[in-house]
Amino acid sequence: MDSGSRNFLVLLLLFASSLLVVDANPIGVCIRNCAQCKKMFGPYFEGQLCADACVKFKGKIIPDCEDITSIAPFLNKFE
């Protein structure tokens, strides 16, 4: 393997590992989950409030759209 190919592989591995670190960011995961719940529940879900909670609690509480207890604080009442 020549040095050009080796350098390319090293750069490729570094890039791939940086993507894994970005995906593992708990605040990012939390905000993406908020967006998913907003898509699922529409006007009944307070997406901005959810995202604010993600930042405030640094992603320690991650909403799960299928777990009512994790999203209850962000749901509007039916009228």
UniProtKB/TrEMBL annotation:
<dbReference type="GO" id="GO:0018990">
    <property type="term" value="P:ecdysis, chitin-based cuticle"/>
</dbReference>
<protein>
    <submittedName>
        <fullName>Eclosion hormone</fullName>
    </submittedName>
</protein>
<feature type="signal peptide">
    <location>
        <begin position="1"/>
        <end position="24"/>
    </location>
</feature>
<dbReference type="Pfam" id="PF04736">
    <property type="entry name" value="Eclosion"/>
</dbReference>
<dbReference type="GO" id="GO:0008255">
    <property type="term" value="F:ecdysis-triggering hormone activity"/>
</dbReference>
<dbReference type="InterPro" id="IPR006825">
    <property type="entry name" value="Eclosion"/>
</dbReference>
<dbReference type="GO" id="GO:0007218">
    <property type="term" value="P:neuropeptide signaling pathway"/>
</dbReference>
<keyword id="KW-0732">Signal</keyword>
